[in-house]
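Data availability (excerpt). The following record was deposited with the supplementary files.
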Amino acid sequence: MRLGIGKLFSFNMLWYVYMAILLNLFVSFLFFRTPFDFYIGYLAFIFLLPLFLFKFGVPREIGLIFGVLLLVGVVQSVIGNNEFPEFVQVFVGAFASYLLFYHLVFNTGTSLQSLFELYLKGAFLCAIVGLFQLASYMVGFVPGYDFAWMMSGWAMTPGGLFGIRIKTFFGEPTYHAMFLSGAMFVAIHDFIYQASRYFFSRTTALVMIAGVFVSFSGTIMGALVVSVLIIGLNRGFLRYFLFGFPVAAIILFQIVQSNEEFQGRYEGTLNIFLDAPQEAFDVLKYHGSSVILYNNFFIAKENFKRNPLFGGGLGSHPTAFKKYTLTSDVGIKGFDLNTKDANSMFNRLMSETGLFGLGLMGYLIFHFFVRRKEEDTEQLWIITGACLVVIFSNLLRQGHYFLNGFPFYVWIYYRAHLERKEQEMSQGLGSGTSSMTKAN
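Predicted structure:
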């Protein structure tokens, strides 16, 4: 299969496309940090994006959205609500990433199923590597679990039930869980409905689920809840309400109680949002990650109140952090972590893009959601569900606009919707033709 860019290429480009996707989705290999963080996946931006732009240009909808964000960012920088260098860095990165992945998903001649299965294969490989790391840790084989010999950012992270939290080739265990959560959704579905499985056997499904679980990230809880809800909506909500949801609730409760890492994060997040402090408070009452999440939510909310329509502009959350943080007088270090990404995409969209960004995200999620149909042979709803789990996970606990290829999941989600519409149109035309034939 040749990349559809005319005579620009005289050789098969499919493997280059696959490598560009895999390196962005699963590998956080950092080349340098100055003047900005440059990861290995960014090489695809240098070599592929100019070719895509030469052939296909900028889609009108993307141009309009980022045109608005450009105008808002410049205005907010001029009036002092944003730092212009920060805005430019975030704007260029987000714009380039959404463009690149749009073209990778829509203009490479690659089927939706092939792209999605590429993600599943990469995720499954990460799960296997993660379980290998855990086994290596249990037997004391240091090079097998501490990947610092390859890259310092892949060094072992202590914690969890066994003394190690798995992150494979991601920067943090949370990112490992977050970006593999879509594959975990498919594994849960395939384990339960093996007769209509999409990708995993029961054995490989268990491997996939275990490979995500050993990250011991609180993100798993939210991903499991969303997964159960999506499966319930598509497989019969009443049946799940009577049986599936109570069983899922018991399993979730057991997971939370299984180790102090899960329990501390769950209880800390629940308690701090119930207490909802509006001024400086005793941070030692709560889990550290919960304090960071709530503090960034509070900052985003305050920034939203003052800039409700379009927010403070891309990259403005650090400026808002200096104005509204509740932890400025805390003597303990670490509570200013994740300042740039607001600790969750929901927080960051609310802070930097206001109703405009939140509205676009809400429109994406609800308008393009694909429900299961009995005659759905390609199982587009599973692809949609998996991407939605990743999107929700990022909304909850990660605010980087294009970390680990986040736009890939947005465009796959959108393309599944378009293919469903094409199916419905072709079925409608087929029914019409059949009726006319009978009438004649």
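Summary of structural features: The radius of gyration is 23 Å.
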